[in-house]
């Protein structure tokens, strides 16, 4: 269980009342991972939502048999990940790998949904905050794609 004061260190939780934070603390665990630990794998059941308290987590994809993977994003202090728990089929689409020793808040998604059913105002506030974060990420991705298209790079490979 995480203490209410721990939530207040992060902007996303500032919209909640003390009672709402008390309920959230009952379904949230503080977890620590070592550098190189995998928090979850692509296609695992998405049953938890995470917030980085300290450290760095890479969200990446490495296809079986491939020697090169793609690191899509990195999450550091205050970074959220694991939102696949909010969408069907509730499977993680990337791997979450610790690039440094890391501490994360881990929220039980099933219990979170039940909490939102008993307190729809809390559910609305939470999803609104998550949507803001993901929309900001979308805008960054759009700018990055635009920059790549604007200044194309030719990559050549030689046989063998």
Give keywords.
alpha+beta; 160 residues; single chain; Jelly Rolls; globular; four-stranded antiparallel sheet; 8 strands; 4 helices
Task: Please provide the ordered H/E string of secondary-structure elements.
Answer: HHEEEEEEEEHH
Q: Which residue ranges are poorly predicted, with pLDDT under 50 across at least 5 consecutive positions?
A: none
The CATH C-level name is Mainly Beta
Mean pLDDT: 89
Can you count the helices?
A: 4
Describe the biggest sheet? 4 strands, antiparallel
Q: What fraction of the residues are assigned to beta strands by DSSP?
A: 25-35%
Describe this structure in words.
The chain has 160 residues and is an alpha+beta fold. The protein has a single domain (4-150), classed as Jelly Rolls. Helix content is 34%, strand content 25%. It has 4 helices and 8 strands, in the order ααββββββββαα. It has helices at residues 4-7, 18-26, 109-118, 120-150; strands at residues 28-33, 38-40, 48-54, 57-61, 70-75, 80-81, 95-98, 102-108. The strands form 2 sheets. The protein has a 4-stranded antiparallel β-sheet with strand order 1-8-3-6. Strand 4 and strand 5 (70-75) form a beta hairpin. Helix 3 (109-118) crosses helix 4. The radius of gyration is 18 Å and the shape is globular. The mean pLDDT is 89.
Topology overview:
Elements: H1 4-7, H2 18-26, E1 28-33, E2 38-40, E3 48-54, E4 57-61, E5 70-75, E6 80-81, E7 95-98, E8 102-108, H3 109-118, H4 120-150
Helix pairs in contact: 3-4
